[in-house]
Amino acid sequence: MIRIIGGKLYDPINSINGKKTEIWVNENKIFHIGELQGVTPDIVLDARNCIIFPGGIDIHAHIAGSGVNLARKLVPEDHRRAFLTGKKETRSGVGYSIPSTFFTGYQYAMLGYTLVMEAAMPILTAAQTHRELEEIPILDTGAYTLMGNNLMLLDLIEKEDLKNAKRLISFLLKTSRGFAIKLVNPCRVLWGKLERDSGNTDSMAIFPKIVPKKLIAIISEINEDLKIPSPVHLHCNEIGLPGNFQITLDSLEAAGENRLHLSHLGFHCYGGKNWNDFHSKTYEIIRYLDEHKNISFDVGQIAFGDTTTISADTDWQYFLFRESKGKWINFDLEGEEGFGIIPYSYRMNNMVNCIQWAIGLELMLLSDDPWRACLSTDHPNGAPFYFYPQIIKLLQSKTARDEFISKFPDGTKERIHLHKIKREYTLNEIAIVSRVAASQILGLKQKGSLGVGCDADIAIYREDSDPEKMFSSVKHLLKGGEIIIEDGKLRKSTKGKTIFVDPGKEEEIQNFLEMAYEVLFSKKIKNMGIPDYLRSSWEKIKC
User: Fold this and answer.
1) Mean pLDDT of 430-453
2) Contact between residue 392 and residue 471 where contact means Cβ atoms under 8 Å apart
3) With contact defined as beta carbons under 8 Å apart, do 411 and 352 qualify?
4) CA 106, CA 100: separation in Å to the nearest integer?
5) What is the rounded distance in angstroms from the CA atom of residue 221 to the CA atom of residue 223?
6) Structure confidence by residue, pLDDT tens digits, 465-485
7) What is the DSSP letter of 433?
8) Whether 237 contacts 188, CB under 8 Å
9) How far, in Å, are 170, 480, 514 from residue 511 at the CA level?
């Protein structure tokens, strides 16, 4: 049994806001909050002059799979920028924007994170994704299964065979051991493969009866019918293009009253007809979100510097390649999805990049409901995840934001709203957007809370007047009740678990699938499942 004394608790789910009290941990659960008489702990952790948060949750990151692996090969120079020498407690690792598997786990843990969700898993390479997730130490993980350009699914929806479409979605989640449905540039990745303009949500797609808005409406409805804990995760059409805010609003409207989670929303709030009049449209997006409580988002905040972009939106990645003129990879997964990889630098002397930076912070600061807003960088697309402490400081300090803005090119202020926003986040709100909101959106009742009976994932930070310094490294980290980091040093490396769902609605579709896979794919259906040995610990989340 572990007793944690002297710390200030921030547990928004249980309305605890900086209260100094004790936490008792027994095995892998939180056992008691407050003093406990007549019990002798095995270990006492001193948390005086510290704040205590639930373990951090990254709802949207690219940490494993075929796209991430190819990105590591594309940028070998990235490996030299950050590295870790193997020690008794740790394996070696490399990578700045795309750290290797072991390095990923250790760095997230040092920031106080205990659960990270892989944001884009193709069904055909799901086994590859799970092999890599298994190699990431300490963290619990999960993955979102890509479906927005699946040939079989679109064909069924085109034929208005929604009964079998529902069964197929259940099959895809179960077979890939995915946690949620992910739609990336729905319909338009296939459209782009035919070398046509990506169009907008009212254009004809490869299947004449289907447009992206219709697909979003149908799949979000099926998601509710299957009672999947998480909403559909949507990467809207026309990411990163001037004027795309209207496409974003159309996509939100398509979901109706169904739950919907917007991925990296910061890349979808752009006004203007071209780069010359590019500007922020966050007020319009936030106004809609404030009126529709069924929609949540992660921000996809950028940070200035070098990174590597990885996206299943091959259409967008090809556009980015044409703009950047650098090295790149675009690859196709037969009849389904693909990935594009491009190194990229966000620069403070680039007005477009400065506006992008401001837009992400505007979304977080203008939202009236932090319980539906999640801190993310769309790692590594906006920035590597270890920029989170810097972003937290920017959310908590208008002075820090103004210091950045003062260095921007002339004319930037006329295109953004950030300098007018006075709001500064409290520590309680930081706890919400960096862990609690994600746990609620994903439907994980045992995560994101310091309540009795919850998983003992606990991050303890030394108090400091500088939020960036405070959140840059934990003093202590408990993962599943085990002390992983003590006095700022990694003491132990454990295995996490992978969470997944099984809606169990794929009956009567097996014969159809066997025929479809025989015709469409080189991989046979009997080889599609994920063997149990690929993960030392699985946890099925009830639908």
Assistant:
1) 97
2) yes
3) no
4) 10
5) 5
6) 999 999 999 999 999 999 999
7) I
8) yes
9) 15, 42, 5
Per-residue tokens: 363: 């979304």
**Which carries the bigger pLDDT value, residue 373 or residue 205?**
373
Residue type, 496: G
What Cα–Cα distance (Å) separates residue 59 from each residue in 119, 143, 184, 295, 389? 8, 10, 16, 15, 16
CA gap 48, 38 in Å, rounded = 22
Mean pLDDT of 478-507: 91
Structure tokens at 282: 């966050």
Confidence of residue 151 (pLDDT cuts 50, 70, 90): confident
- The DSSP output letter for 475 is S
Q: Which positions ≥6 away from 465 have C-beta within 8 Å? A: none
- Among left, alpha and beta (phi > 0; psi -120 to 50; other), residue 78 is alpha
Q: Which of 444, 416, 398, 432 is nearest to 360 (CA)?
A: 416
Tens of pLDDT, residue by residue over 257-308, are: 999 999 999 999 999 999 999 999 999 999 999 999 999 999 999 999 999 9
Relative to beta strand 476-479, strand 458-462 is antiparallel
The CB density around residue 44, as the number of other CB atoms within 10 Å, is 14
Let me know: does 201 contact 254? Beta carbons within 8 Å: yes
